[in-house]
Amino acid sequence: MKTSANKIPIQNRVASIFVHVTDLRRAAEWYSELLGLPVKEERLNGGPVYWFDIPGTGLILDNNANNRLNPDWREEMKPLIMFSCEDIDEAYAYVTEHGEPLMKPEHHPGMAYFNFLDPDGRAYMVCWSNGVAGSELDESNEPLTTSPIRPRIGGVFVNVRNMKSAAKWISGLLGLACREEDTIQSIYTVPTTTGAAILLDDNRFRQGENYEIPFMFACDDIEAAFQYVSEKGMDVFHGIEGIGVKFFTLRDPDNNLVMVCQDGEEPSGIIDGYTLVQLPVRDLPRAVSFYRDVLGFILEHPERPIEEHAFLRTLSGQGPGLHLLEVESDEYKHDHWYRGEQPVHGLELHSRDVRALHRRLVRAGIRIEAEPYFVEPCGGYVKFYDPDGHLICVNQS
């Protein structure tokens, strides 16, 4: 769920999320393997964080080594969500009206940030950067990986105790209208302009559970994703669950829980239809005349000369297009084959009346392979050869 940009000092998007770890290298290697990405050694240079360049919402691993050097820092100050801003001082003044700042803006070369608490005591960060605060990569530009788990954070879960008050608070913070009718649900989606949605979740509170699942990665094939992590020996917290929306949960080396989720939509990247059938022909005008005048196809672009190739479609427009490509005789090969001594067709078409079609074929002097016959429950069939010798079967269902 996306929304248009607002005009408040905080950008309504999850720029990045934090995963807090103890061993930065171990965590970087584990998440890299999960996502099928190479480890970037230059980011393991002794600093406290390792980040992943993934589109939409970024992922930052943080061992908090620098934070623990500050005597005023406390463990409850660790944020999950980073928001971006264009002016850190304006954002700080704004947040003081909506939350509890934990610190004044801390300035560093090229960036500044501060943390604050929500009414439930959860820490957030607001960050300004003269480059990119969080991930602003094109959401359509996912890196190529070797894992069925996509390098994309689909949603960030925020555990809450009172859904109505939590929804009102974060909606107010981000300049959104609160949909009170939706606060009776166990998940309330906070729309963002881009990247991961914020998902308020009171399931843990309702069920008396003391763990939380901070975020989820997306995948297109939940079975393939689960097989992948199983083969890698990763620690599965819960196996595949859900109807429509399917997911499973992992435990990283620091016992942080990570969900992998496939929604109920068709997975992307699969074949979802037929576009074109191509047939080689030796005499293009003759072939076009047969498919147009005898079989009833429509010639695409009739204004063009019939030279080298031609595109046709059925009168109804259903099914793939037909591309007739003229070739030399020594390059030609028909599209059917033989099983034993019986020819097997490669192209099967459809007609509402195979008997009427048969009569048209006979009048045109077309070679018939099989007279019309009917098989229950599949319907009627007729088989014939086109002028170039391709065996074609037509079904009446």
Automatic annotation (TrEMBL):
A GO MF term: lyase activity
Domain VOC: 13-129, 152-263, 273-397
Entry keywords, A to Z: Lyase
PROSITE patterns from the UniProt entry: VOC
Pfam families in the cross-refs: Glyoxalase
Protein name per the record: Enzyme related to lactoylglutathione lyase
